[in-house]
Write a structure and sequence with these properties.
7 helices; single chain; globular; disordered C terminus; alpha/beta; eight-stranded mixed beta sheet
């Protein structure tokens, strides 16, 4: 009997991430969960079982994210990685990490970029984005909102930057299925109890993209909602913007995506596509 396919879900201690991880387990996958710290890792084990494998890393720290990449690489190879971890500021003051970077951008966009750069590519990459990008505009000259900051704009623009990076990665690595997804307005810590969708409903499309064998899920370079490709923000689909975002991410993190030269491409764990 073949070994079960292996998946990593970031930000999987609760909320949509936990629901995605649970659903992938129900699909027969061997799932590694991610927690910000040991206390939250223990919650994962209480929820999913004491033998559950959990990798630990704080996305608000570049050093910790790089160490997480090393853990993930040692734990791999992975067939699927779902980048779900995200954060939104609750206060009125612009938050800055120990790296001197605006925290919303670092957690929501730079950390997934660093992991993608440093971890061997899986067969499928799924990134949880947001429809908050619909009416937002990314200022490439002020990605960190140093001139003006509010929590809503910082969140929406971090998700535009994330989506632009995802679509760049899909062009850069055609051997991998790489997509972004809006899970819907889901009842969670971030959205509260007024949201109409359950966690399981929010997890549906990310899980479908992660493991479905049907043709609609075996695509790359798209943004999905309710298992349907959508286009919420033209900037995210602009290749010049995508490339500018990746250059800015490399400068901010000191980490460069492999693959400028095809001989420099990262190792890949197989392929679902012929």
């Amino acid at each position: 009997m073949p070994a079960p396919r292996r998946a990593l879900v970031t930000g999987s201690t609760d909320g949509i991430g936990e629901a995605i991880a649970d659903a992938l387990v129900a699909c027969g996958m061997d799932v590694v969960r991610h927690a910000r710290n040991e206390q939250r890792a223990e919650h994962c084990r209480e929820h999913a079982g004491p033998l559950t494998e959990v990798v630990i890393g704080d996305f608000a720290s570049l050093e910790s994210t790089k160490a997480l990449a090393a853990q993930v690489t040692a734990s791999g190879p992975f067939d699927v990685i779902v980048h779900n971890a995200g954060w939104a500021a609750a206060g009125d003051e612009r938050p800055v990490t120990m790296d001197g970077i605006e925290q919303t951008l670092q957690v929501n966009a730079l950390a997934p970029y660093v992991l993608t750069a440093l971890v061997p590519l899986p067969r499928r990459l799924v990134f949880v984005s947001s429809d908050s990008i619909r009416n937002a505009h990314l200022d490439l000259s002020d990605l960190q909102h140093e001139r003006s900051w509010d929590a809503g704009s910082a969140y929406a623009e971090s998700k535009i930057a994330l989506t632009a990076f995802v679509l760049h990665a899909a062009r850069r690595y055609p051997q991998v299925m790489i997509n972004a997804v809006h899970p819907g307005w889901v009842r969670s810590k971030m959205s509260g109890d007024v949201a109409p969708l359950s966690l399981e409903q929010g997890a549906d499309t990310p899980v479908w993209l992660a493991c479905a064998d049907e043709p609609g899920a075996q695509v790359s370079g798209l943004f999905f909602h309710d298992r349907t490709p959508v286009r919420y923000n033209d900037q995210a689909h602009d290749t010049a913007v995508q490339d500018a975002v990746v250059r800015a991410f490399a400068e901010l993190t000191g980490v460069r995506l492999p693959g400028d030269d095809p001989r420099d491409a990262p190792p890949t764990h197989g392929s679902d596509r012929a």
